[in-house]
Amino acid sequence: MILNLLYAGFSDASIARRLGVGHRTVQRRVQRLMEQLRANGRVALGARAQELGLLPPRASAVRTGRASAAADALPHPVRSRPVRQR
C-alpha cells in the first residue's frame, strides 16, 4: 500500500494520515522497502518496483491521466487543523 501511495506522489505525512500511522512509521517502512528492493533512493525504489512488476507501467498512468488507481480508491485526506481564511 505504501509503495502505491509513493508512486501516486503522496508525501510521507499524507501517507501516514491516510493509513492512520505515524510519520516516522512511514519513513521506516519506506527505508525497509528500499533495503529489500536494494534501491538507493525513492526514485530508484519506484524504478525497481516497476522492474519487478510491483507497480503498473508509468505509460498507462500518463495515458489515463491518473497517477494510480490505488489513490482513487482512498478517501481524500482530512486536514488536521482548519484552514484560515484571509
Give the helix/strand layout.
Elements lengths: L1 H6 L4 H8 L3 H14 L5 H10 L6 H7 L4 H5 L13
Task: Summarize this entry quickly.
This protein is an all-alpha fold. It has helices at 2-7, 12-19, 23-36, 42-51, 58-64, 69-73. The protein has one domain: Winged helix-like DNA-binding domain superfamily/Winged helix DNA-binding domain (Arc Repressor Mutant, subunit A).
List keywords for this structure.
6 helices; 86 residues; Helix-turn-helix domain-containing protein; Arc Repressor Mutant, subunit A; mainly alpha
Plain-language structure description:
It contains 6 helices and no strands. With 86 residues, the chain is mainly alpha-helical. It has one domain: Orthogonal Bundle (Arc Repressor Mutant, subunit A). The longest helix has 14 residues. The chain starts with a helix and ends in a 13-residue tail after the last helix. About 21% of the residues have low confidence. It comes from Streptomyces ardesiacus.
